[in-house]
Backbone:
């Protein structure tokens, strides 16, 4: 007779009926079988109830990724990303064979170690400055935009380095590339399972795959730990002895190496990329509870185990270099991945699974839990998979939980792809599944990299912005050479162009298409993020030791690259509006970026009380810079001539830079320019690529039009979002996720105009709500509570002390704060009441 003792909460099979219980005891085995009672679909979670197939496995055998689309549908639309800022992967959740794609953010082809060496790699600039006077003279001769300036710019302001892998015999720009895949055979057929769930818990940065098979509960848990630099895959079952697994590694096919046994329970791959000899190492160790573990023919085999934990370490030999030797082939080589992976693995093994997971959870929660958002007291209207929830939303069913989930998913992605000590998030964060990728999965500096970091500080993740600043530092020395090559030997400061890699590349590419391959204000735009970091944190030591020199060098270039025209004004000539339109003598976008970096430099020099003479120069140039212009149909003009097409639906809205992310256009301070900006957005329309809708969302919020901003947010979710909530350009680009998260913050709070503006673009659909933990410039942390479309209460926590200015609608209040103190602001009938907590 089979006797079972049951208490509430666990799942087991008895006569084909599932019963919930806390603990289950089966006389048959005399061993306790404890089911995981945590429902990971609750809280903030993205989840599916159907497994992925394996059709995209080793996708490079079908398509190498060098195209504008990703042929691996399951990876792009239905996988879940995990990451610790540098080392990550995607969990596919197939049943019979678990498939995991691997990435290490520094695994790049190209660089100075390609055949031809450093001198070949760094010989990427042309001497464009030699025709600069001719270009500028042509603007006078032909009274503006002309073919002479266009051809001279096309032929001399491009570079020598190709952007396509087949454009050079030795491709030096390179690309981000996959670290390969893991395939874990389970011996369980998909036809034999029920109750399948694949879940990404944003609350714990944990992916869970769970299902029932043969009367037992199976669980797989995946996370990537920042504190321990390790990835963990854990396979559990409620019945002992059910884990029979074969773990295989499939290497990047454009690398040389082999899989070897690493002790008796692990494997190691030590390889080098064919492109540049970059060394990378992957180690895996299996720890089984009972059963046996062996290594056979490069695979780990587990037989008859209760639970199995795979510890995975990966690294490359890449080192970040702020002062590269332009004659050194190995300028970016400096890490021993054999040693780092061994040390990381040994340390994690000594700690054990529970300790590693607890450290991971504590580290992640310390960042993620800072911000809470509740829109209309949203609840789970129905507990359904995310793809169904998104489908309903596309069909017009309101779902504020999905909107909150999207917001927090952006914060999750930033934590997972950008942590201190690592490279910044690239076009796809840190995730890719192929040997090549769209736009080399690079660092695009004409909006995409910048957009990645729009939410960092306001979403209370300033620590996640430090990789961007460290990366900018790597561009300075090469960027000084680029500045001199194109604007003259006496040009001060540094800049970069549209596309960058991890090897200090700052040159324009070889394409003669100046609509996209010309943007020398990309460097100043990046440098504005250095000021943003200071403005949010008010870390004066950072500004003095690191930030100011980056800002100053960028401002110096901005001034030196301008043309002092015969009429006494300054203009960016030549210049373009990125990915759109002609070569111009003063594109609005370029001037808006120059305004922003000069304002930043002036303010920074005042704070540090340095460079008074430079400050005067910056102010003089700012005063004489060509002003914004309003065109024939009331639009903010994109170029120096009124050639804007009112029927143009182009995705880029570069000329609105001053509205967002800049601060020189505002409904409060420049109402006419704001109206002109509105006309631009109305004419361009509300449809676009994913990231473009994210940008327009922010711009409508800056115009204080909450309902239109909300429309753009809805369009982003409906038309620019994959089932796993990744942004779709298409293909997948992560910038749209970050732009969307930043846009939600802009709707609820803005602080770019010198005061904290509460609920500046609140849509009607968010009539009531709470947000906790947003950050404002001045090092303030802000909570907001509103009801019936009216502010009720705000709490301000002051990190640095000083004056705090609050605006709500037309009401303003100013009050002095003390560092470490918090203040409650009660709003009633246009009046604020302030209480020190």
Residues:
């Amino acid at each position: 007779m089979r006797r079972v003792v049951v208490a509430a909460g666990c799942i087991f099979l008895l006569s084909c009926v599932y019963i919930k219980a806390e603990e289950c005891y089966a006389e048959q085995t005399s061993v306790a079988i404890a089911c995981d009672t945590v429902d990971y679909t609750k809280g903030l979670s993205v989840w599916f109830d159907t497994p992925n197939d394996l059709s995209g496995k080793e996708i490079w055998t079908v398509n190498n990724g060098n195209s504008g689309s990703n042929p691996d549908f399951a990876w792009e639309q239905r996988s879940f990303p995990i990451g610790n800022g540098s080392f990550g992967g995607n969990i596919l959740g197939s049943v019979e064979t678990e498939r995991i794609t691997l990435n290490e953010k520094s695994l790049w082809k190209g660089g100075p170690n390609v055949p031809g060496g450093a001198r070949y790699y760094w010989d990427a600039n042309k001497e464009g400055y030699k025709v600069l006077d001719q270009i500028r003279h042509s603007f006078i001769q032909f009274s503006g935009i002309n073919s002479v300036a266009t051809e001279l710019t096309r032929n001399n302001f491009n570079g020598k380095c190709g952007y396509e892998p087949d454009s050079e015999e030795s491709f030096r720009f390179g690309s981000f590339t996959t670290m390969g895949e893991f395939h874990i055979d389970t011996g369980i057929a998909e036809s034999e399972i029920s109750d399948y769930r694949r879940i990404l818990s944003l609350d714990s940065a944990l992916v869970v795959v769970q299902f029932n098979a043969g009367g037992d509960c199976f669980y797989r848990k995946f996370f990537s730990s920042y504190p321990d630099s390790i990835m963990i895959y854990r396979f559990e079952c409620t019945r002992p002895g059910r884990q029979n697994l074969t773990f295989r590694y499939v290497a990047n096919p454009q690398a040389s190496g082999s899989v070897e046994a690493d002790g008796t329970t692990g494997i190691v791959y030590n390889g080098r990329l064919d492109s540049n000899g970059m060394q990378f190492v992957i180690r895996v160790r299996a720890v089984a509870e009972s059963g046996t573990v062996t290594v056979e023919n490069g695979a780990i085999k587990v037989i008859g185990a209760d639970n199995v934990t795979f510890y995975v370490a990966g690294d490359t030999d890449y080192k970040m270099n702020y002062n590269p030797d332009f004659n050194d082939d190995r300028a970016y080589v400096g890490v021993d991945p054999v040693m780092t992976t061994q040390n990381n693995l040994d340390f994690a093994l000594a700690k054990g699974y529970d300790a590693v997971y607890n450290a991971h959870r504590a580290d992640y929660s310390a960042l993620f839990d800072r911000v809470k958002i509740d829109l209309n007291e949203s609840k789970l209207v129905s507990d359904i998979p995310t793809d169904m929830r998104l489908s309903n939303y596309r069909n017009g069913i309101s779902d504020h939980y999905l909107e909150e989930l999207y917001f927090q998913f952006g914060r999750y992605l930033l934590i997972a792809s950008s942590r201190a000590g690592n490279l910044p998030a690239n076009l796809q964060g840190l995730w890719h599944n192929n040997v090549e990728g769209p736009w080399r999965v690079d660092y695009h500096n004409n909006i995409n990299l910048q957009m990645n970091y729009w939410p960092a500080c306001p979403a209370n993740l300033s620590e996640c912005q430090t990789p961007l600043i460290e990366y900018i530092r790597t561009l300075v020395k090469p960027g000084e050479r680029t500045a001199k090559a194109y604007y003259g030997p006496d040009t001060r400061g540094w800049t970069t162009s549209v596309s960058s890699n991890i090897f200090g590349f700052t040159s324009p590419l070889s394409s003669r298409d100046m609509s996209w391959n010309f943007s020398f204000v990309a460097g100043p735009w990046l440098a504005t993020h250095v000021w943003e970091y200071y403005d949010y944190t008010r870390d004066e030591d950072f500004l003095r030791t690191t930030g100011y020199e980056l800002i100053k060098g960028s401002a110096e270039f901005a001034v030196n690259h301008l043309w002092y025209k015969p009429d006494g004004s300054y203009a960016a000539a030549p210049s373009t509006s990125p990915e759109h339109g002609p070569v111009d003598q003063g594109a609005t976008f370029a001037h808006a970026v120059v305004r922003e970096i000069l304002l930043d430099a002036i303010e920074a020099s005042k704070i540090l009380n340095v460079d008074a003479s430079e400050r005067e120069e910056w102010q003089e140039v700012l005063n004489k810079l060509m002003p914004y212009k309003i065109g024939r149909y009331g639009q903010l003009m994109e170029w120096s001539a009124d050639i804007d097409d009112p029927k143009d639906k182009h995705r880029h809205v570069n000329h609105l830079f001053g509205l967002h992310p800049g601060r020189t256009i505002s409904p409060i301070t420049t109402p006419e320019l704001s109206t002109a900006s509105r006309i631009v957005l109305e004419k361009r329309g509300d449809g676009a690529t994913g990231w473009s809708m994210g940008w327009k969302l922010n711009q409508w919020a800056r115009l204080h039009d909450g309902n239109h901003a909300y429309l753009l947010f809805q369009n982003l979710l409906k038309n620019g979002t994959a089932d796993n909530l990744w942004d779709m350009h298409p293909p997948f680009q992560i910038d749209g996720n970050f732009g969307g998260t930043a846009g939600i913050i802009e709707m609820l709070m803005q602080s770019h105009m010198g005061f904290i503006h509460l609920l500046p673009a609140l849509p009607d659909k968010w009539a009531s709500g709470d947000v906790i933990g947003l950050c404002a410039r001045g090092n303030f942390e802000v909570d907001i509570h509103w009801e019936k479309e009216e502010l009720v209460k705000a709490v301000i926590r002051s990190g640095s002390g000083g004056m705090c200015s609050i605006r709500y609608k037309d009401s303003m209040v100013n009050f002095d704060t003390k560092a470490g103190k918090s203040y409650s602001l009660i709003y009633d009938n246009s009046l604020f009441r302030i209480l020190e907590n």
Notes: Confidence is low (pLDDT under 50) at residues 1-34. The two ends are 66 Å apart (CA to CA).
